[in-house]
Amino acid sequence: MRWVDLKESLSDFWFEFRREKTGIAGLALLIFWIVVAVSAPYVTEPNIPDKWKTIWIENPKVVPPTWSSIFSGVSEAPHEVIYPEELQKYVQSTTRGLIIDIPYNMKYDVPPQDIVLMNISGKADGRLRPSLTLKIVRPDGKEITLLSGVKIKGTTTIQVARDSGVRKTVINWVKGETGIQLDPSKELQLVTSIDTMRVLFAQISPDMLEYPKALQGEYHIVFEIKTPGNTSVDLSNAKLILPGRTYGYLGTDDKGRDLFAGIVWGSRVSLTIGVATAVLTVLVGIFYGVAAAYFGGWTDEIMMRFQEFMASIPTLPILILLGTYFGGHIQLWQIVLLLTVFGWVGVARVARSMAYQIKEQTYVEAAIALGAGSGRIIFKHMMPQLLPYAFAQMALSVPGAVLAEASLSFLGLGDPTQVTWGQILHDAQNANAAVNGYWWWVIPPGLAIALVAFTFVLLGTALDRILNPRLRRL
Amino acid sequence: MGLGKYLLIRAINALIVLSIVVLVVSALFVKVAEKELESRIQEIVNAEYQSLVQQNRAPSDPEAWKMERIKYYRHLYKLDQPYHIRVLYYAKRTITLDFGNTRIPIFGTERNVKAIISLALPRTILLFTTAQIIVIILGLLLGVKAAQKVGSLFDRALSVLALVTTSIPMWWFGMIMLLIFAFKLGWFPSNSMPNPNLTGLDHVLDVARRLVLPITTIVFVLFGGWAWVTRNIMISTLQEDFIMVARAKGVPERKVIYGHGLRAAAPPIVTMTIFSLLGSLGGAIITESVFNWPGMGRVYWIAIETQEINLVMGLTFISVVLYLAGVIIADISYGFLDPRVRVGASAKM
């Protein structure tokens, strides 16, 4: 084929394609996905697949996206981090050590989940160690000491809300302020169940333990660090985190992972698996079908029996079994290979029936008469005739591959080195996300899968209409 | 060629395919189960030893005794035989419908594989076949309607809906349905296991309530594709000459569509129907798992997770048999419905 011809047929094709509205929509979506996949490291962070395996300590766990408060009408504290440089501004030196006094403007209905001071490292000399005291000064003038005399050795991280000692302190403080009496079993239950931060940031009232109502205003989070003797503390890496009740564009999961990052990165796997599998599957299928039709007779009969055999194997159970066989996880290239091995069957059947018609054409007979080899006839004369069908078929078989990979990952058999939408949904199912109403963990990944599949369905049906003229009148 | 001879050839063919599938599947499963069996034998022998010690009947030479017992169990489970013998042994047993028992009871107390399958299959039929029938009826009606008014708003809306719904993973949609209707609104139970305390009419109503969400899920995801295919087939049929003749003769439009058009379009539709109905018998592994529906798919998943070779073999065998039966039935009905068509082997003879 000459370059000019190719250019002309391409521009012909484009001329027809432009008139297919679904095709244009599909193309736009495809470009969108390619942009998302390529820009993943820049939009989020470059090391997400590695980071995904760890627990993201700094993030709040299972919180909805920031925009969800628009619908609920309750304003919830967003995620806030005070980085080391900024933290230095609040540090004052005293004769006995340091005081970090951080003002916090609480203007929400629900306060943050926790107060976390990360990476504060102390240098000790001999038996003396630096120690830390944490106080909260409330807008109503009350002051609570949550922690006192916590020894700092090495690099320490201080987390307040999960500490049962802090909970007891808070309950005692409430008892002192309101004068309520609690029976011991009730108190025991409260120690394990109360939301420390909500009570801490609540208006003082007798029922503030059960129904805390937020007290808005300026709070001060005060850390007093004593450095006796020759000890010292290093705050150059320290940062203060106020884990939010909401996070980012798409919230977080139970390990604090940013679901937005996961979904952006998942597009890479979906597109790669989908396109690679579709191309391989269709090429193998067409080659198989054409070969069967070309050789005919017994070869055809045997090849079709094999095709029937492959078609009658229940695919998903075998894939699951092979997954366990490969040690519980199937790597990406193995998934592509397996989906191809089980996927070419349908294409082969159609390609064979189409190839039978092509075989009868005079130019094929002429080529045979001229003594052309089988390979030449199959690759040079017959397969190109099936290309239009092949292109449409490729686009149409992408959704199947995308769904299959998602299904395998959903069953926990996916590639552990990658972030995929199926795995996110698998984790969601394991954490009973549906039961607990974590909609932001279930809906976006599934929508993403459906949208990628939809993209290729649109492209495929449009291509089918243009490239396979018998369908043109539909 | 006579129908009898054709049937015979098809049946022999199917049997050959079936035995190869069984061989391959048993080869895979024997390999996977090997390690598991070895460690289980170790456990059994240790447990036996412990109970003997407790009864003060500990053998004088524990090591030799253990070796003896391990050898006994290895023989019992045929682990002392070479690999290919074990594969053949499993394959032969499966083909003669002797599926054996599972180690751990499934569905409460049942350990016999045949009994488990006969418990699970009706449940899957109840769910998937019911849903599939609704899908087919709904798809056919909507598809024919769309084909009648090609390019209308209804046609376009249906096409878009079809393309959207076929892109949705069924199990994900199931999760969403559970999220909304079971947990947020609380209209339907989230667990599909029927309440064992209810009998009679109460039991039927209980099961019906549990069916609503899964059936809605399946129907919603599948009906669009059906409508779309029916529409496409019907459009090309309605452009044929005999339809034009019928219309010219003044045959009522209803009769033209349903009497002439749909009848001529029947062969591919019937094939699709047979395959979807048969496909529905296997259940959908993940969908049944999401809804915790105790059918074939759920059992399949449990069997693979707990490495119950016998159960997996039985389930695979049944689904392959059903598939092959479907192929034969579809081929025959194709020939009956459309005399112009002779499919497969019959075309060449």
UniProtKB/TrEMBL annotation, chain A:
Residue ranges annotated for the ABC transmembrane type-1 domain, each copy included: 267-460
What InterPro entries does UniProt report for this protein, alphabetically? MetI-like (IPR000515), MetI-like_sf (IPR035906), OppC_N (IPR025966)
Transmembrane ranges, per UniProt, are 24-43, 273-297, 309-326, 332-351, 386-404, 438-463
Q: Which Pfam families match?
A: BPD_transp_1, OppC_N
- The question of whether Membrane is a record keyword is answered with yes
Does this entry carry the keyword Membrane? yes
State the GO CC annotations: plasma membrane
Q: Which CDD domains match?
A: TM_PBP2 (cd06261)
**GO BP, sorted A to Z:** transmembrane transport
Q: How does it sit in the membrane?
A: Multi-pass membrane protein
Q: Which SUPFAM superfamilies match?
A: MetI-like
Q: Which UniProt keywords apply?
A: Membrane, Transmembrane, Transmembrane helix, Transport
Cell location:
Cell membrane; Membrane
Q: What is this protein called?
A: Hypothetical oligopeptide transport system permease protein appc
Q: Which family does it belong to?
A: Belongs to the binding-protein-dependent transport system permease family.
UniProtKB/TrEMBL annotation, chain B:
Its annotated compartments are: Cell membrane
Q: Which keywords fit this entry according to its UniProt record?
A: Cell membrane, Membrane, Transmembrane, Transmembrane helix, Transport
Tell me which Gene Ontology terms the entry assigns under biological process. Answer: transmembrane transport
- Highest rank taxon of the organism: Archaea
UniProt cross-references to Pfam families, sorted A to Z? BPD_transp_1 (PF00528)
Q: Does the keyword Transmembrane apply?
A: yes
Under the heading PROSITE patterns, the entry gives:
ABC_TM1
Regions crossing the membrane: 7-30, 125-146, 158-187, 207-229, 269-291, 311-332
Q: Record's GO cellular component, any one?
A: plasma membrane
Task: Please name the Gene3D superfamilies in this protein's record.
Answer: MetI-like (1.10.3720.10)
Query: Domain named ABC transmembrane type-1: which ranges?
Result: 121-330
Q: How does this protein sit in the membrane?
A: Multi-pass membrane protein
Its main localization is membrane
Q: Which residues form a coiled coil?
A: none
The entry assigns this protein to a family as follows: Belongs to the binding-protein-dependent transport system permease family.
Q: What is this protein called?
A: Oligopeptide transport system permease protein
> What lineage does UniProt assign to this protein's organism?
Archaea, Methanobacteriati, Methanobacteriota, Thermococci, Thermococcales
